[in-house]
Structure formats: structure tokens, C-alpha cells
């Protein structure tokens, strides 16, 4: 039989146990976690936006699916450190990357899932009727399309640059490095946000950021105080063609060997490269939102459905 004193002791003991159990919950809700060193640490998180609803995101034994409306998910309360992150869905190539989680910071990644068997439509041997942007000025040999406009950047015969017919100061607008890239590199183009130049040859793909540094993607920053503008994207051989992937600024379409690949620009933590078409020396004709037109083996044209 419990005496009054024993009942009082049990009551206070129950309160103590309750508080001990509640303490980690309170810490968790405040964004703290207990590390392997048994010390308190501020936690961080990962926000993943994907091209597909219902994709499974796995990080630190935590599993969540991307939402049906926003195709995204947030995983919170991760202790600082490196985490292998996986995004997968049946019928698509798996996306994996090692992410660094910092305290009180949410890492953001845009994940383009590439189908293993993309929808293909045979267009035949007749060249498709496509709108190809070209300057309407005679004698233009080298030019760049200015994205989302009807304007062109043109390299004149005099070695100067022009925006349509008007003189354009590339060095003053951007930098000497930009001037040298545009003038010396055989293959280059602006991304669709007019933020970077992609330039490439048969073995390498590189990028140079021309927009404001405060707009540079989080993953591209070497540090918060001095992010680098230059970026090496890929070394491969032979590279035949490169286009930006429509509406996904962190990805490229690359024709190499007997395939066309979707190439993630970020190399840190593991670069994701997935084939979207395999044939015989396919050539990219055009890449628009949701649609890739290619020429295979110099004979047949195909239309490939691109994930949005």
C-alpha cells in the first residue's frame, strides 16, 4: 500500500520523466538537435523541387514524396554535416548527390528527373518546319540570340560588337573575360535567363556568369563573399552539340557519341548525367519547352518529349 509520501514521490517522478521526454521535443521544434558528440547543434534542411510529382526523396533515413501541386518537398531538422541525397521515381533515372547541410540554412536543389524511355515520335526524312532565329542583316557570320527577345548580339567584320545595328560595349556591360570568350570561342550561347555564357569544344563545356553575383545559384557559390563566375561543367569526347535545357537553368542537353544526355551543371557532390535518347550520332536540331527535335544518323528526324 502506497503511503502519502510514496505517492508524492511517484507524482514528482512522473513529472520529471515527462519533462525529460518533452525536452527533446522542445529542442526539435526550436531547430536544435543532439549530435554524435552529445552537444546541442542548430539544424538545417533541404528543399527539393523536382520535375515530377510523387518522386521519393531520401536523406538521412528520412523519406518524403514531392507534392502533387508544387512537385516539391522540405526535409527539416538535419544536423550539420554531409548527407547522401537521393530522388527517385519508377521509370526515371535516379538523381543522387552528396549535400552539405549547414546550421540554420535550407539547401535548395532543382532536380530534373529524366525518363528511361522518353516518348518518341518519328517525323520522317523531311526537314521539320522550325522557326530558326537569325539576324536579318546581310553578311553576318557570327551572332548570338538574346533570349526572350527578337534581338541579336552581332560580331561585326570590324571586330566590334553590335546589338542589332547599334554599337554594344561588351567590356563595359560585362567584362574583359566575357569579351574574350565571345570573340575567341567557336561555340557559345547565352542561357535562357541571359545570366551566363555557355561555351564548348569537342572535349569540354564551360560557363561564365555575366549577371549580378547576388543572383548566382546557391550551388555555384564557392563562398558567400567571393563566388566564382567561371565554372567547368563537363569533360567528355567527342562533344558534338550543346543546348540549354528549356526552363531548367541548371541543366544542359549534350550530344556526345551515339546519345543525347541531360547534364547537370553542378559537379560538386556528384554530377548527374542521364541519357534521354540513344541512336547513331544524333544531332540536336531544336530544344523548346517540352520538345526536342533531333536528326539521327543523318536520315530521320525525331521528336522527343522533354520533362517540364
UniProtKB/TrEMBL annotation:
The chain crosses the membrane at residues 9-30. The keyword Transmembrane applies. It comes from the Bacteria. Keywords: Membrane, Transmembrane, Transmembrane helix. This is PEGA domain-containing protein.
